[in-house]
Amino acid sequence: MKKHHYNIKTVWTGNEGTGTKNYKTYNRNHSINGEGKYTEILGSSDPAFLGDKTRYNPEDLFLSSISSCHMLWYLHLCATNNIIITSYKDNATGCMEESPNGNGKFTSVTLNPLITITNSSDKEKAMALHEKANEMCFIANSCNFKIKHKATILIE
């Protein structure tokens, strides 16, 4: 089995002089960067957990990872099956449930890709490839819940 290794640098940038002296007042802002990456990601926590709503939170990035992994596998499968995709947009949604003790987990994710293809005869096959993309997606295979797909395919 091939192994792939990844490294990310996460730096807390929210120390405003008093550190984490008070739970309600310390800043959750941080930056995420990887070696050789062009831009850093500005992160925080979800506003429900006192974060900055203008920055990406871990839950956003988790959902984005599922959506982009599925898209990349789907594009690969369409290319190798001679289905020409000219547009792919996904409005992914997810639900995280928080327990009374404060821990939580994602319980559902739904991908809602809107895809444009060039040939109407490929529509059925293009739709079926979502299942195969889900089987191949590394991130989906790492989740402990089923990822739903509600794709819409348009003909160019």
* CATH-derived architecture of the largest domain: 2-Layer Sandwich
Largest sheet: 3 strands, antiparallel
- What is the overall silhouette? elongated
CATH overall fold name of the largest domain: GMP Synthetase, Chain A, domain 3
Output the CATH class name of the largest domain.
Answer: Alpha Beta
First-last Cα distance: 40 Å
β-strand percent reads: 25-35%
Helix content: 25-40%
- The order of strands across the largest sheet is 1-2-3
Number of strands: 9
Give the domain tally.
2
Fourth-level CATH superfamily of the largest domain: K homology (KH) domain
Overall residue-averaged pLDDT value: 96
**Helix/strand class:** alpha/beta
Q: Helical element count?
A: 3
Low-confidence segments, ≥5 residues, pLDDT <50? none
Pfam families: OsmC
Protein name: Organic hydroperoxide reductase OsmC/OhrA
InterPro entries: KH_dom-like_a/b (IPR015946), OsmC/Ohr_fam (IPR003718), OsmC/Ohrsf (IPR036102), OsmC_Ohr_Peroxiredoxin (IPR052707)
Organism: Maribacter vaceletii
